[in-house]
Amino acid sequence: MGAMFRSEEMVLAQLFIQPEAAYPSMSELGELGTVQFRDLNEDVNSFQRKFVNEVRRCDEMERKLRYIEAEVKKDSVPIPDVQELPKAPNPREIIDLEAHLEKTEGEIKELSESAVNMKSNYLELTELRQVLEKTQTFFVEHEETNGMDSVHRALIPEDTHNVSIRGRLGFVAGVVNRERVPAFERMLWRISRGNVFLRQAEIDKPLEDPATGNEMHKTVFVAFFQGEQLKSRIKKVCIGFHASLYPCPSSISERDEMLKGVKSRLEDLNLVLNQTEDHRQRVLISVARELQNWSVMVRKMKAIYHTMNFFNMDVTKKCLIGECWVPVKDISVVQKALTDGSNSCGSSIPSFLNVISTTENPPTFNRTNKFTRGFQNLIDSYGVASYRECNPALYTIITFPFLFAIMFGDLGHGLVLLIFGAYMCGFEKKLSAKKTDNEIWNIFFAGRYIILLMGIFSIYTGFFYNDVFSKSMNIFGSTWTEDIKSYNWTTVEMNEAMELNPTTDASAIPYPVGLDPVWQLAKNKIIFLNSYKMKLSIIFGVLHMIFGVCMSVINFVHFKKISSIFLEFLPQILFLICLFAWMVVMMFLKWVFYTAQGTDVKFGTSCAPSVLIFFINMMLFKENDAPKGCDVYMFDFQPILQKILVFIALLCIPIMLLGKPIFVMISRKFSKKHCHSNGDINQGMELQPEVVEEPKQLEGHNEHEEEPMGEIFIHQAIHTIEYVLSTVSHTASYLRLWALSLAHAQLSEVLWNMVLKMGLSDPSFVGSIKLYIVFAFWSVLTLGVLVMMEGLSAFLHTLRLHWVEFMSKFYAGLGYPFQPFSFKIILEEDDNEED
Amino acid sequence: MGASYIPFIVFTTLWAIVGIVLPFVVPKGPNRGIIQVVLMLTAATCWLFWLCCYMAQMNPLIGPKLDRHTIMILAKEWGNSPITLAK
């Protein structure tokens, strides 16, 4: 059968791989992505597994890669995207890679450290230079006050004794953070009791802190004091305020010399710093090219070793054994991958695959392409299908957009959806290459084919509802207006509004495709549309549900539960058909029989019965009342037919309730009878057709087998009640198709009449400007409310109709998804995590 | 019965071709089953949708209630002759 009809057949396979060939074989299997490995060492601690050292090595390499990447990003070196992903490296390449990574990491670390050292040197020299320059002025003044400069120098040199008595001031010079200057001043004042003289000058340019790279504003200060004790106190205060002290000579000549020396050293240091920067850039650029490749290779390696930890070592220590789930279709591909792996490492003994039988439940695997993946996701969100169960996603491809379109039916809005969907599908290669974090865009993009189909079907239903942004098109000629000339002027003038007579005014032929355009202009349009759309919803709803019940037959046939076809499917479908399909038939009969154009009054417009009242009276076994001159029923044998249908339906209920449990009971008895050929425990108990009393006695004996009998009865009772009630409630639930389409049409009309009409009503030049502005409002509201909001709402309701009304009739949904060992999936997951 | 047979024939044959004939013509490939199911479902749903719309208007039980200005414009634009004062 087709690809998506049911999930693929899976087998449990044992892989026997030679240890040398294990790594390349796993690499091949990872590239393929078609097997799911089972963990054979579940109770083993992750630190005691076989390949834990290799995993550790990979972790180390990843750490180094992360460090390098951080450094590359810090310097904003662009990392080029790698086009084709490399394969996992073989063991020789691994050693090379490790060595290379270590070398690069060491190099970068060294460069960073030396850069930091040099920068702090640079800072010190810069500060020293600032100190020397700024304190120039202080010392000149100081010398003036001391009378040391040439003008004031005494002609006769005074003896040193007097000079010392005059009290030369000592000083310390340094640099401190600008923010700390006031506190620094205060502290110095306090410790010296006001005997310290502080001069300060700000450094204009901010300096770079070597460790953090932040910019700091600093101030040069010179503190003058007298005496040694004060000196030590001042030094302690400077240490406390993280002020750096610099040896500053007091004489001018020495200072000039020092300044020159500092300047030349600064220039040299600058040169070296720039060269280091360039070297670092070069290293980083050359590394950045390889970075993506390396990280992909390391991740693949880690995945391979992690998966190899799932394997068991054979008793003879000669080969590794692994267990995996493989789709039957892919067994040959897997075998080829194994032989490729063992060939690439030159192993003489080939690896092989052995299928083992098991009673375990295999995972559910549906092979999807980019078109069907969206629909499969919709179904899987509700629950993953049980193994080999019928896959509803195949039908969802069409029924989902179609039911959406019934609710959304507007040609104009459908066109917007179609354009959006076509844009996403047409440019999908470009758009999928752009990896964005925007969740909403990613969701829309993943469902692009769904949106495309929804747009196409909405255009179809919009054409039929004759609704283009709430206006109708008259393509084939309205059939209500050909005879309108029979009205004369006075009749029309006198009456505010007139209802056209279906007998005389409608031509014999209805509008061929869709709704007649006259209805859009009618004041009583909703009455007609309600009748039409409600019937439409029920017709499609009942058909959808019958389809769902029929799907259960396919499941019963596949799982060889033939008895269930007669005991479960048959009563279910009869119940549904006898009651609700009959209602659908009545709708069609009403459409055909009752006309305004016939001569028979009994089938005229005034006698047309309400189908709903018919249905209710049928269920309650009541008689219809009919107005005078009309027949009670649509055709002669209708009452008898209805009674038969209700009777059959009521008969189905006990079959649903008791059929399967009694069958299970009887079949257990039979199998027990076969088991105990001699020495029957149940001596004297014969198999009787009347088994109502027996179940209680048998209950105890059957407890150790599958389910106890009592539970089966209860389950079946719950099932039956659920099914019977759900037929009614789900049928009514499909009326949301009518409700939402009505809401959509009304919103669209309101938007036109209240918003766009304002712009269209003024024919002058000013009117054109008004129209320009009004159109902006109208289009924003159309896109935001009618397309986005109504679209999402209709999407949700359609999803609910599928999940609850359709799938509850047959879907079990108890499987678990197939998670293959695939590099593609692992790399994607890592990317998403990083983001 | 107020219905002509031409639309019936046209639409039924159109969707019959899509739903019954085309599935045989689908090229062989891994997606053959999917395309066949898609064609059949599309044909069935679209044909039924057209049928319901057509049958609902075949024998209308009520007529549209139109404002008098609308009637006059309809008579002029869509109808065979405008309603004149002379009448």
UniProtKB/TrEMBL annotation, chain A:
Q: Which UniProt keywords apply?
A: Coiled coil, Hydrogen ion transport, Ion transport, Membrane, Transmembrane, Transmembrane helix, Transport
Q: Where in the cell is it found?
A: Membrane
Judging by the UniProt lineage, the source's domain of life is Eukaryota
Per the record, the coiled-coil ranges are: 94-121
User: Pfam family of this protein, just one?
Assistant: V_ATPase_I
Q: How does it sit in the membrane?
A: Multi-pass membrane protein
* Record's keyword annotation contains Membrane: yes
- Please give the start and end residues of each transmembrane region: 393-420, 440-465, 536-557, 569-589, 640-663, 775-799
- Function text: Essential component of the vacuolar proton pump (V-ATPase), a multimeric enzyme that catalyzes the translocation of protons across the membranes. Required for assembly and activity of the V-ATPase.
The record's family statement is: Belongs to the V-ATPase 116 kDa subunit family.
In Swiss-Prot or TrEMBL terms, this protein is called V-type proton ATPase subunit a
Q: What is the lineage of its organism?
A: Eukaryota, Metazoa, Ecdysozoa, Arthropoda, Hexapoda
Automatic annotation (TrEMBL), chain B:
* Record InterPro entries: ATPase_V0-cplx_e1/e2_su (IPR008389), ATPase_V0-cplx_e1/e2_su_met (IPR017385)
Cellular localisation: Endomembrane system; Membrane
What keywords would UniProt list here?
Hydrogen ion transport, Ion transport, Membrane, Transmembrane, Transmembrane helix, Transport
Q: Principal localization?
A: membrane
What residue intervals traverse the membrane? Answer: 6-25, 37-57
Q: Family per UniProt?
A: Belongs to the V-ATPase e1/e2 subunit family.
Biological role: Subunit of the V0 complex of vacuolar(H+)-ATPase (V-ATPase), a multisubunit enzyme composed of a peripheral complex (V1) that hydrolyzes ATP and a membrane integral complex (V0) that translocates protons. V-ATPase is responsible for acidifying and maintaining the pH of intracellular compartments and in some cell types, is targeted to the plasma membrane, where it is responsible for acidifying the extracellular environment.
SUBUNIT field: V-ATPase is a heteromultimeric enzyme made up of two complexes: the ATP-hydrolytic V1 complex and the proton translocation V0 complex.
PANTHER family xref list: V-TYPE PROTON ATPASE SUBUNIT, VACUOLAR ATP SYNTHASE SUBUNIT H
Protein name from the UniProt record: V-type proton ATPase subunit
What organism is recorded for this protein? Nicrophorus vespilloides
